[in-house]
Amino acid sequence: MPRRRDAQPNATARIGLRERNKQEKLQRIRRAATELFDELGFEKATTQAIAERARIGAGTLFLYARTKEDLLAIVMANDIRDTVTKACATIPPGLSMPAQAYHVYSRLIRYHAHCRELSRHYVRERTIPRAYRPSAGKKETTPAPLIVNAMSELIGQLQASGDVSRRYPAAVISWKLFALYYGVLVHLLLGVTSERESLANLRESFQMLFDGIGGDG
């Protein structure tokens, strides 16, 4: 009996250690990929070089990302998640819903404008249906739901206070915002509009959407 009682804590400790090692390797991979994409660009950076920079074997890298596109997705999804989290946490009080949405999505536009080459590859890969199949079980390569859910929470709060009409569900409005943002982003990455023009288009599009929905100034 004593052995059985001791076995559970030991097994739990081993699982915890494996998970920490796994996360530590993922952090090294993300850091190595970020550095090499910045230094060499997407085309010249290789998975072998990223594995060497991360101090892991190519076979181990394959467990986390099967292709270079998957590595880029890991890097950018993490950056996008951080950008959205920080933007949502710094929304000034008293802003209208269009202004709140602009506060969050304008940060994403600026982020993509800053790393335009990588963003072109990332958006192109994420647009192809097969790219939405998570690599090695990684859900973080598709950040759209996180962005939409964050905005949906904000919209729901304003609907509860009467500042935004309840005519449409918060999730539906949030996806419409994302669609408007995505259109602006694509034009930016294609070089159709500048960063400044993209931000102006984003602000105008969000205001028009809520003017149509009603209940928010």
How does this model look, in words?
This protein has 217 residues and is mainly α. Helix content is 75%, strand content 0%. It contains nine helices and no strands. The chain is globular and about 55 Å long. The relative contact order is 0.10. The model is unreliable at 129-141 (pLDDT under 50).
Poorly predicted ranges: 129-141
Give the termini separation.
Answer: 68 Å
The number of helical elements comes to 9
The value of Rg in angstroms is 21 Å
Please tally the β strands and state the result: 0
Which percent bin holds the helix content?
Answer: over 70%
H/E element order: HHHHHHHHH
Name the CATH superfamily assignment of the largest domain.
Tetracycline Repressor, domain 2
Largest sheet geometry: none
Number of domains: 2
CATH fold topology of the largest domain = Tetracycline Repressor, domain 2
Structural class: mainly alpha
So, CATH architecture of the largest domain? Orthogonal Bundle
Q: Which band does the percent of strand residues land in?
A: under 5%
CATH top level of the largest domain? Answer: Mainly Alpha
Shape field: globular
Mean model confidence by pLDDT = 85
Give the key terms.
Tetracycline Repressor, domain 2; 0% strand; Arc Repressor Mutant, subunit A; 217 residues; mainly alpha
Write a brief structural summary.
The protein is mostly helical and 217 residues long.
Furnish the topology, listing elements before pairings.
Blueprint: H1 2-40, H2 47-54, H3 58-64, H4 68-89, H5 97-114, H6 116-127, H7 144-160, H8 170-189, H9 195-213
